[in-house]
Amino acid sequence: MSELISPDAVHFPTDPGYDPAHSGFGPVAAEALRSAAQSEHCTVGIPDTEVGVSVVAAELTAPATQSLIGALRNSDFVEVAAGDGLITFTRFDIGGIHDVATAYVFDQNIWVSSLGGGTEEYAIRLAHVALENIRAAN
Questions:
Q1: Strand positions, DSSP E, 87-132
Q2: pLDDT tens series, the chain, 138 aa
Q3: Chain centroid, CA 66 distance in Å
Q4: C-alpha dihedral, 77 to 75 to 129 to 93, nearest 10°
């Protein structure tokens, strides 16, 4: 029996030539990511499963942030009121190889996404851990 890796223990960068904008993002999110001032991406595989989670952190321009938030509010994403001052959206898709939970968390112009297997709560937690690490580094 294997243990799941704690989200705060994950530090596996993906291939440097990989463009995360091609990985499960809609057109507005992909464009926001491509126009970001800076971004980082990593993917984690959960041991002994076929499930992985991708996390992207990006510093967006103010117009890209507003455009993406507006698009999310007019989509099938659900805005979550977490009471932490962050803007958070989630979506859960059933099907394919496995179900996919997505969380987008915004702290002003910083956008962190978590996309992959697991629950919406796990996706939100993973995005929050990434955001906490960004804050600690800056």
A1: 87-93, 100-107, 110-116
A2: 334 445 454 444 445 555 555 567 888 998 998 899 988 888 777 677 767 788 899 999 999 999 999 999 999 999 998 767 899 999 998 877 778 899 999 999 999 999 888 888 888 888 988 898 888 888
A3: 17
A4: 50
Q: What 3-state class would DSSP assign to 24?
A: coil
Query: Structure tokens of 38?
Result: 């800076």
Q: Which residue has the tokens 């851990």?
A: 129
Nearest to 72 by CA among 93, 53, 88, 92: 88
- For residue 101, which phi and psi values (nearest 5 degrees)? -105, 135
